Amino acid sequence: MKPIIGALAGAIIAYLGSAFVLWNLNPGEWAEAQRGATAFFSGLFAFVGALFAKISELMP
Prior knowledge:
- Helix content is 85%, strand content 0%.
- By secondary structure, it is mainly alpha-helical.
- It has one domain (2-58).
- Helix 1 (2-23) runs antiparallel to helix 2 (30-58).
- The relative contact order is 0.20.
């Protein structure tokens, strides 16, 4: 159960970080947008991975 909580916490932190970066984005700051997208997708994949791990844990 603890790995699931850790993965979810990591996903939430990565998502909030990407949201903060994209919220403060000025036109032309492409490097920042790239970093925000990377953080968003890494958080998304961490969440999906945790979800699949939890589903497989519940399977008989």
